[in-house]
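Predict the 3D structure for this chain.
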Amino acid sequence: MTLLIMFLTTMTFAQKGINYKAIITDGSGNLIANTQIEVQFNILKSAAQTNVYSEIHEPTTDDKGIIVINIGEGTLNTGSPDFTSIEWGIDTHFLNVLIDKGDGLVDMGTTEFKAVPYALNVAKKQHVLSVPAAVFYPNNEVCSFFNSIGPGGAEITNTNGATSVCVLQAPVQLPHGAHIDAFTVYYIDNSEAQLAIQLIKESFEPGFALVSDIIETTGNSTDIIEETTALNHVVDNNNGGYFVRVYCRNWDAFGAKKIKGVKIVYTY
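Done. Predicted structure below.
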């Protein structure tokens, strides 16, 4: 079988992938027309050329020997990360191409991306913001407040006559325009009083809005409880900011209710 070579290739960058066009010829320069081939793309990172992405395509050349493939939409090789995980803005990247006409993959060489695929580099990605117990604080000095790490958490007790006006709160900073996908809370609730853990948008003007309100009423466990609610909220920092509030109608006995932390998943 005559070794395949790529006679001409071009690449353009789109938001969801890299458009790759090539003319396929044999070792004598003859077009390989109307033939199914296998193409493997490897994206390598840094001078060490660490493989950060690998996929397979099985295109069929047209009557002029041309294939057009969108890198990023192939079948992932086993163990390969997703295409969206590539950090284009960090370090240099290279494209390695292998072709199989039936006798196994042949390495056709490696080419450096001379320009960062800008549209890919700015594609939105999912992020996680964690708010640990250590940053929560009470809203007034009347409350008897405890905050400990490890098996502890942030809590208010009723030793100083804590009432429903005593809440725990923590600020959160989210990028303007981000899409909040989920709100997860971690807490301990071992009393019957209702516990509410809220994500709140507070406006510069009077008023606020609940973005998420997770309410716990069972109150019968000393274990850490994890609870998640899906959200569809776009962050607007033009007229206010965001914070987490932990509210209870009655802060009961010492250690009965604790906030362990909050996790906010957003796309930006």
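The domain at 5-121 is CATH 2.60.40 (Immunoglobulin-like).
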